[in-house]
Design brief:
Elements (H helix, E strand, L loop, with lengths): L14 E6 L2 E7 L5 E6 L1 H23 L8 H11 L3 H19 L3 H12 L4 H8 L3 H20 L2
Antiparallel strand pairs: 1-2, 2-3
Length: about 160
């Protein structure tokens, strides 16, 4: 293997250069997602190498400058302020979360299980139906009814 420095990989550099025993190769992934190795001449290899070095140089230059992001002091301060909650907002959020958990705990076991799978485990109605051996519509109705029950419980608090 040649002693060239390791190259920085990114999505715009789809090939890898390699030389062994005086032969030059370009590795790449084809449209069938298979790694291909092509032997190339030294001049083609050197051209690819120059292109790769120029790309790395441009990426490094871009990374060194902050103009490509909004990392200015006033925008960072605004972002910081927008993420902070007042003590009142924090406790209100805690109370809402507790009420939601209490409402979910009042559901029948089947609705509770399906609701948790759908919203918290991010499973589809089809996946839940397959797991539980029932139909898509059955799971869908069960979840929608659970949501309605939760709304009613929260409304009556």
């Amino acid at each position: 293997m040649d002693k060239r420095p390791k190259r920085r990989k990114d999505k715009y550099n789809p090939y890898t250069l390699c030389s062994e025993k005086g032969k030059y190769y370009v590795y790449f992934v084809d449209v069938n997602n298979r790694i291909q190795m092509v032997e190339v001449s030294k001049s083609v290899f050197e051209t690819f190498n120059i292109f790769e070095l120029e790309d790395i140089s441009q990426m490094n230059e871009y990374d060194r400058h902050l103009e490509h992001s909004e990392a200015y002091e006033h925008t960072l301060h605004k972002k910081k302020d927008s993420r902070e909650w007042s003590l009142e907002e924090y406790f209100e959020n805690v109370q809402i979360t507790e009420n939601l958990h209490m409402a979910i705990s009042k559901l029948p076991e089947v609705q509770k299980r399906r609701l948790k799978k759908y919203y918290f485990e991010e499973k589809t109605f089809d996946e839940i139906a397959l797991e539980e051996g029932c139909t898509y519509q059955c799971v869908q109705r069960s979840v929608y009814r659970a949501v309605e029950k939760i709304k009613n419980i929260l409304k009556n608090l």
